[in-house]
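Tutorial handout. Part one gives the primary structure; part two gives the three-dimensional structure as tokens.
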Amino acid sequence: MGDDTNFDPTGEKKARKKATMGGAIACGIFNTVLGVALGFLILSLSAPPEYKPKPDAKTGKIPPPPATLFYWAGTPGGDYRSKEAQLLVDKPGSVTISDLELNAWAAATFKGAPSRPKPVAKAAPPKGTSTSDVDKAKAEAKAVEADLQSFGVNAGTPNFHIFKDPAAPADAPLSFQIALPMTVDIAGDSIETVYQARGTFVAGPAGPEFKPYVSYLGNARIPGPLAGTMFHSLFAKFAASEEGKKYADAWAKLASANVQEGALVLAGK
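Part two.
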């Protein structure tokens, strides 16, 4: 009788086959996760198209923004100081602040970190100079290390804008947008991107809370569970500063924050 190649009394072949299949599945899952992570990184390091509308020549009205991804930056203007003084008293009452005034306040309050200088490339050795492969490899390794050490995220000035977002949910007729331009320094290159969150305000234990319905880092949409975490992480440094604590104390005295056309209405308790 010939050998039966399928005969496996010890189960060794079956175990090998199962291990091979398990390895293939694990490898597939790893490649999928890696692909998603790389895709998110590439999208996050690319700035979304900026919407710069022009008023209609006849009506003077500004056309609505596109339904697809965009970044509509607000502009500074007006004198915010009297509104700020109202907020910082014991009983602030009702204060209406335009997004122009918010941007003027942000420009005066936040100072973006300067971009890191790019690593200076070393001049090539003169012709005829002999360099061993070992020395050359060491030099290349040091150059790579210097590039990696230059990685950093430099935040710019926060930006505020109030507008009707066509992608907003039905219960948010007007959206409050908070944006944070960033410069990411990596491998000797500076890449401009922007974080933006659009949402409304809800009641919270320490005053009104900003609740984003959508958040983006560059062109990458941030998943719902991470949106709030990223928002608080990005602004945690300012919140922990003396300046931030002063505004946090004033904010805790508010009963509500409501968005209206072009302005944020804050009401004291």
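Part three, for discussion. The chain has a mean pLDDT of 74. Residues 44 and 103 are 24 Å apart (CA to CA).
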